[in-house]
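Encode chain A's predicted structure.
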Amino acid sequence: MSNPKWLKNYVESLSIPAHGRHRSDCPLCGKPNTFSVTDNGFERLWYCFHADCHTKGGTGISLTKDNSSQAFIKRQTKEESATVDFVVPDTFVSLSRNINAENYVKQVHSYDAYLDGLADIRYDFQRDRVVYLVKDGDKVIDATGRTLGNNKPKWLRYGTSKMPFVCGMTDNLFVVEDCPSACSISNIVTGMALMGTSLLDSHIQVIQNYKKIFVALDRDATRKAVDIVRHLSNYVPTKLVVLKKDLKNMEREERDDFIDNHISR
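Encoded structure for chain A:
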């Protein structure tokens, strides 16, 4: 359903600073506190969270002297401050709000971890991405989102944290490429996703809390995996796991047998 022409003018008339947010009753369906507007410094995006209201849209990019300077100041402040806490955007909603997002999570075998509370997975309706929240204990410190369309990059890191995504509650740790792979094995071992980066000191701090480490990167990253095994062996017992198929693409029985065979050796 298309938005009425007056809605854009209404959103533009709201008193919201650059990079600010607004929450109010929806001007279309009238439901209380369901209408969210986000100003990213260049345009405003709106969305109604009520299940029966499908209004959403954007004003289009509009640069003025005021909002462009405010956007620059905001970006500069963020870059200079490495200790700013990560704030979960209003655009992150329940996974069940989008059938494509829910189906993707099921397809890559992350859904059980989601249902078991081992992974906090949401849908970003603004960027059309499945989002895996990165946590330190119960605190959200970052997020990474996988596009459901053709948008680039395929994986988007939302914050500036250097911490990895960890899923599971066992003493055995599998170092893997991405969040879905980490989730897919969390019923047997703990998965830690590098999320496309090289091994960092912050990763080692996490890894040292586990008894046995297994490095199971994609087959085309075998050389990288070997280097990681050599490096980690200085800290904890570490073994290389050669994958013939991506963990998140294995069926559960195949994946469980594969994991069991390696951790029992």
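The two ends are 58 Å apart (CA to CA).
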